[in-house]
């Protein structure tokens, strides 16, 4: 009977649905050819990303590229970007400029709870995800005096990155396209094997052969996951919302981001969130050599474990792109390759109401919810979504807690 059901699911193609589910899961797909000059299209009805409000400081700081702020309904956080020429790139000067931005932001907007600063080399600055910053700092308002003493050379302050680690070059272009469907790069028979594994998981759930498509169905529990963490503006807003709701989530962290913003990764671990691996550079792994894939995963593991003091157990490939080599290396490193069942498309900015309705409609036992920590609409809808899940007696938790002891060989 089970074999018949599996065959039926395979034949159904993209319309595959799990027992009791209200919405199809994202079926594993073969790779699609990319047209020259193609960029990811917006979903129907999607809108451009929001334009964040900016603060203007007086007196002006010439090196300040921008100072943006945003709230989550409870607190507001600002993030400033400073661009320096080589002559100005001394730690003492970086500290002093960061202090000017922090104090100016708190003075200009008294409602701010936290100000974060990222200092970059002006010539090589490539935005968030480009070359690592030279210096970063996170300053909650109650810690302003501590940061001032540190910036003046009179004390220590742990919520900083002083640029001691220089990232190795990425083995491939950084992936800017978001996860949409799991995409298998391999033979036709390999794709069939992946679809069989995914189909069986819709009825049984749990980890099988190093793969996790869905959690167990016998409890009203789903995993809440965020990709691309940590982001210096959105991370404190997300962590604040989860802390207020008493919810723990899994953050799939980019290794280089963990290096640049170590204090946010420590914050995740300290409040009981789970930290997973999203590669070191956020690159597509298919097409890389075994050594390059191993280095991407191992470097991210090391960066994360150094900060959390815990082993990394779960891995999500950027873009959902994976191959037999990806799975082999991940399993050798003790990582479970983790996909998702519920994707509201928050990265496409379809609107808060659309993201919210998709989240609610697709919530299911054993589900794995995919959101992005740098998607503004994820911040907007999260509070209400957590309340709806609670009203439905659906527990949202980490991937590790979802699968528990139900992993299978």
Automatic annotation (TrEMBL):
CDD domains: CE4_NodB_like_6s_7s
Domain of life per record: Bacteria
GO cellular component assignments: membrane
GO molecular function, one term: hydrolase activity, acting on carbon-nitrogen (but not peptide) bonds
Ribonucleoprotein keyword on record: no
Swiss-Prot/TrEMBL GO biological process terms: carbohydrate metabolic process
Record EC number: 3.-.-.-
Alphabetical list of Pfam families matching this protein: Polysacc_deac_1
Signal peptide as annotated in the record: 1-17
Domain NodB homology: 220-397
Keywords: Hydrolase, Metal-binding, Plasmid, Signal
PANTHER family: CHITIN DEACETYLASE 1-RELATED, GLYCOSYL TRANSFERASE-RELATED
Record's protein name: Polysaccharide deacetylase family protein
Organism: Deinococcus sonorensis KR-87
């Amino acid at each position: 009977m089970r074999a018949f059901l599996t065959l039926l699911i395979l034949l159904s193609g993209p319309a595959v649905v799990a027992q009791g589910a209200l919405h199809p899961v994202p079926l594993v797909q073969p790779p699609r050819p990319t047209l020259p000059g193609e960029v990811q299209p917006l979903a129907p009805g999607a809108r451009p990303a929001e334009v964040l409000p900016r603060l203007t400081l007086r007196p002006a700081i010439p090196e300040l590229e921008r100072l943006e702020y945003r709230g989550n309904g409870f607190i507001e956080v600002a993030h400033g970007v400073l661009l320096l020429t080589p002559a100005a790139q001394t730690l003492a000067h970086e500290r002093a400029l960061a202090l000017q931005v922090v104090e100016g932001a708190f003075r200009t907007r008294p409602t701010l709870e936290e100000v974060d600063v990222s200092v970059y080399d002006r010539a090589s600055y490539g935005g968030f995800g480009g070359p690592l910053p030279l210096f970063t700092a996170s300053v909650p308002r109650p810690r302003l005096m501590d940061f001032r003493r540190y910036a003046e050379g009179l004390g220590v302050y742990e919520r900083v990155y002083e640029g001691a680690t220089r990232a190795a070059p990425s083995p491939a272009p950084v992936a800017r396209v978001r996860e949409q469907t799991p995409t298998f790069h391999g033979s036709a028979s390999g794709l069939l094997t992946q679809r069989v594994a995914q189909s069986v998981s819709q009825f049984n759930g749990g980890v099988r052969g190093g793969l996790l498509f869905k959690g167990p169905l016998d409890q009203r529990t789903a995993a809440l996951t965020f990709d691309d963490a940590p982001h210096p503006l959105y991370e404190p807003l997300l962590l604040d919302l989860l802390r207020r709701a008493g919810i723990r989530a899994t953050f799939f962290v980019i290794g280089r981001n963990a290096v640049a913003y170590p204090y946010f990764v420590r914050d995740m671990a300290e409040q009981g969130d789970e930290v997973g691996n999203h590669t070191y550079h956020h690159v597509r792994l298919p097409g890389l050599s075994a050594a390059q894939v191993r280095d991407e995963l191992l470097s991210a593991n090391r960066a994360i474990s150094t900060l959390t003091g815990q082993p990394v157990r779960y891995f999500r490939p950027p873009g959902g792109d994976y191959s037999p080599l990806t799975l082999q290396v991940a399993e050798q490193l003790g990582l479970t390759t983790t996909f998702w069942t519920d994707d509201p498309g928050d990265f496409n900015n379809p609107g808060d109401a659309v993201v919210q309705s998709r989240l609610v409609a697709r919530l299911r036992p054993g589900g794995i919810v995919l959101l992005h920590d740098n998607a503004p609409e994820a911040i907007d809808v999260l509070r209400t979504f957590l309340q709806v899940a609670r009203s439905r007696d659906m527990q949202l938790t980490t991937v590790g807690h979802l699968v528990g002891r139900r992993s299978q060989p």
